[in-house]
Amino acid sequence: MRIVFAGTPEFAVPPLAALAASRHEVVGVLTQPDRPAGRGRRVEHGAVKEFALVHGLKVAQPVTLRSAEGREPLVGWNPDVMVVVAYGLILPPEALALPRFGCLNIHASLLPRWRGAAPIQRALLAGDTETGVAIMQMDAGLDTGPVLLERRVTIGPDEDSPALHARLAALGAAALLEALDGIEAGTLTPRAQSAAGATYAAKLDKSEARIDWREDAAAIARRVRALRPWPVAETALQGEQVRVHRARALPDAAPGAAPGAVLGIEDDMLVVACGSGRLGILELQRAGRRSMTAKEFANGLRAGEETFT
After folding, report:
1. Smallest Cα–Cα separation from 57: which of 12, 102, 105?
2. Is 70 exceeded by the pLDDT of residue 40?
3. Hey, CA dihedral for 169, 174, 180, 183, is it positive or negative?
4. What pLDDT shows up at residue 130?
5. pLDDT value of residue 251
6. Which residue spans within the chain are E strands per DSSP?
7. Which of 23, 28, 102, 184 has the most crowded Cβ, counting Cβ within 10 A?
8. Could you read off the pLDDT of 151-167 as tens digits, one per residue?
9. Ordered DSSP codes for 152-169
């Protein structure tokens, strides 16, 4: 089939690579316009555009698909299917109706749970033990279209957002090819999403990074895992910002210790009292410095006298 691919960030590269290597023809790639990034505000390509250029695929970067001008490349490519993965632009009804078999989306959750922008991070924050990918036929709603197939995975106890992201990207690529074969053969039956159990995965906000040491240790550990690589869980020590990159909840409590109190080093972890339980920090970073191990960070700290706030 003739495929148009629409995507922008790294998560979208594995399915595009799978399509490029398949028997289907990628006739064009839609991706968001280049934007300034980083401290130098240099204009950079997204990961999908980089892949497309390296592999000789046609690329278009319309600012919007709401106008006839913005949809011109899509009309000219005349696709059988458009595959949309973390594209970042709204597809109006006029764009959704152009491909012969409609538009497919790889969504990184088991719909209808975690519709929206940050399904991987929200699943981790909520303490979900299972997630997956859904191949969905797109409609005018936000991740509300019928599901063609889904694949489930168990979330590991110490799995963070980048690790789960990588697993789901690979899983989504394989599921996409399976769905395309089913569409072509006429063997897939779309399943309408249930209204029950629908949740919304709101976009992450920088304000969510702040650790509240009054929470239980398990919730804080989930925050650390979910908020990598952005915005990164953070706290403060003696008024200085400290980012926490890796941590795990420890089972036993610290009776009498105030939330945030540094209890010492244990099994190469900097142990901190929480509202309930203790948090073992493995990797953290002072403002403007490199990331370091708990032992390196603990040099000069006085256990029982220092408190994160």
Report:
1. 12
2. no
3. negative
4. 98
5. 82
6. 2-7, 25-30, 35-37, 42-44, 59-60, 81-85, 103-107, 115-116, 130-137, 147-154, 200-201, 234-237, 240-250, 262-266, 269-273, 278-286, 292-293
7. 28
8. 999 999 999 999 999 99
9. EEEPPTT--HHHHHHHHH
Residues of the chain with CATH 3.10.25.10: 206-298
Between CA 53 and CA 65 the distance in angstroms is 22
Three-class secondary structure of residue 36 per DSSP? strand
Residues 74/103, Cβ–Cβ less than 8 Å: no
What's the rounded Cα separation, in Å, for the pair 59 and 65?
14
Which CATH number is correct for 2-201, 2.60.40.10, 3.40.50.2020, 2.40.400.10, 3.40.50.170? 3.40.50.170
Q: 110-154 pLDDT, tens per residue?
A: 999 999 999 999 999 999 999 999 999 999 888 999 999 999 999
Fold of 206-298: Methionyl-tRNA Fmet Formyltransferase; Chain A, domain 2 (3.10.25)
Q: 3-state DSSP call for residue 35?
A: strand
- Packing angle, helices 47-54 and 13-20, rounded to 10: 20
Say if residues 80 and 2 touch (Cβ distance below 8 Å).
yes
Q: Could you give the dihedral angle defined by the CA atoms of residues 32, 37, 41 and 42, in that order, rounded to the nearest 10 degrees? A: -70
Give the pLDDT band of residue 245 (cuts 50, 70, 90): very high
Q: Does the pTM of the predicted model rise above 0.85? A: yes
Comma-separated ranges of CATH 3.40.50.170 domains in the chain: 2-201
Summarised one tens digit per residue, pLDDT across range 271-295 is: 999 999 999 999 999 999 999 999 9
Contact 172, 133 (CB under 8 A): yes
Mean pLDDT of the chain: 94
Residue 247: beta bridge partners?
A: 281
